[in-house]
Design brief:
This protein is an alpha+beta fold and 350 residues long. Helices cover 32% and strands 27% of the residues. The strands form two sheets. Strands 1, 2, 3, 4, 5, 6, 7, 8, 9 and 10 form a ten-stranded antiparallel β-sheet that branches. Strands 13-12-11-14-15 form a five-stranded parallel β-sheet, sandwiched between helices.
């Protein structure tokens, strides 16, 4: 899911009024699911999407109508026959959308919150945004926001009750959808930030180069690792968040924090390097580990690792030969097959 934190921060810093529409609940057949976001500017230009078609147009109209003053509303949009026809959908459903509008003079605290969120996302770290609902009048209300970092640091005004703070710090909130929480007479909207899945590409050769481009298009945070500076450099990998040059692949994992949102692709220039990276990768929590090469090469590496004590169960989790079977030949085609397989694995996990 595309992050809109940077576009939001840019608008806030430049004093550009905008609206942020977030799906907080969905039922039935809808074009996008809870947590999907869209930024609407006064000229009707967009960042992100909540599904396109007539339903998005109606949400956009509501955003424009509300943009005269900073305010919030929660509006339900029913996908009636007209909207379904506009989306080429068979079944109907409902979208509940939270619309927030932001004016041309945002507070320094609000800018700091989104600046910190942007920095957290760039570093692959999480945070939780909490919006306290204030001044509910009819259909409209305002919010006061703060950001809670994983170490418990609060950015912005600390206006949350201890029970909510403790729940955030103990990771009780997850998933893509905002959650409305009540504590006594106070009401809050809790949004866990969505860090991009990270693709680690070990090997900066032709396939790695093409795969990094595919990863950017499919919204993966990308880290490229190689021991050749002439291949692994930021000029060549323009869209990669990090390009790491190591003296030896055996040291490649020393500075990496690989978690359950990580996907590892092994494309180094030699069998021994592939084996070294694979052995280290199997010790991580990465849900996807793929290694390029023929079945013969794979079997030799597996035999070597088995002698070193790596279990068959661990090796059976590796995707090798890598990629979907689409008869790919060129580096770009191989990259398509790899990113397609990763997207498939990610979808099966959700």
């Amino acid at each position: 899911m595309e992050s809109l934190t940077q576009p939001i921060l840019d608008c806030l810093k430049q004093g550009i009024p905008f609206a942020l529409a977030t799906i907080i609940a969905h039922k039935g057949s809808t074009p996008r699911t809870s947590g999907s976001k869209m930024v609407v500017l006064s000229d009707r230009s967009l960042f992100g999407t909540i599904g396109g078609g007539l339903v998005e147009a109606r949400v956009m109209d509501a955003c424009i109508d509300m943009m005269s003053v900073p305010q919030c509303r929660i509006i339900e949009f029913t996908l009636d026959q007209k909207l379904k026809d506009g989306l080429d959908m068979v079944c109907g459903g409902n979208l509940t959308v939270w619309i927030e509008t932001f004016g041309s003079h945002p507070s320094p605290s609000l800018i700091q919150i989104f600046a910190t969120m942007a920095a957290q996302e760039k570093a692959g770290k999480k945070a939780v945004v909490i919006s306290k609902i204030n001044g509910f009048s009819g259909a409209s209300f305002t919010t006061e926001k703060c950001l809670v970092l994983p170490d418990g640091t609060i950015i912005g005004t600390n206006m949350i009750p201890k029970v909510l703070f403790d729940a955030v710090c103990s990771n009780q909130f997850s998933g893509a959808a905002p959650m409305i929480q009540n504590y006594g007479l106070e009401e809050f909207i809790v949004e866990p930030s969505q860090t991009c899945d990270t693709l680690y590409i070990f090997g900066a050769g032709h396939v790695g180069f093409q795969l990094a481009k595919m990863a950017h298009l499919t919204e993966f945070r990308t880290i490229v690792v190689d021991d050749r500076e002439e291949f692994a450099n930021q000029k060549r990998f323009k869209h990669a968040q990090t390009v790491l040059v190591v003296d030896k692949f055996a040291n490649a994992f020393d500075t990496l924090s690989i978690d359950k949102n990580a996907y590892i692709v092994i494309l180094t220039r030699g069998h021994l390097h592939d084996q070294t990276v694979l052995e280290a990768a199997l010790k991580t929590e990465a849900p996807y580990i793929g290694m390029i090469g023929s079945s013969r090469k794979r079997n030799q590496i597996y035999a070597n690792l088995t002698k070193k004590g790596v279990s068959k169960a661990s090796l059976d989790q590796v995707y090798s030969p890598i990629g979907l079977d689409i008869n790919s030949e060129t580096p770009a085609e191989i990259a398509v097959s790899i990113i397609g397989q990763i997207i498939q694995v990610r979808a099966q996990m959700r």
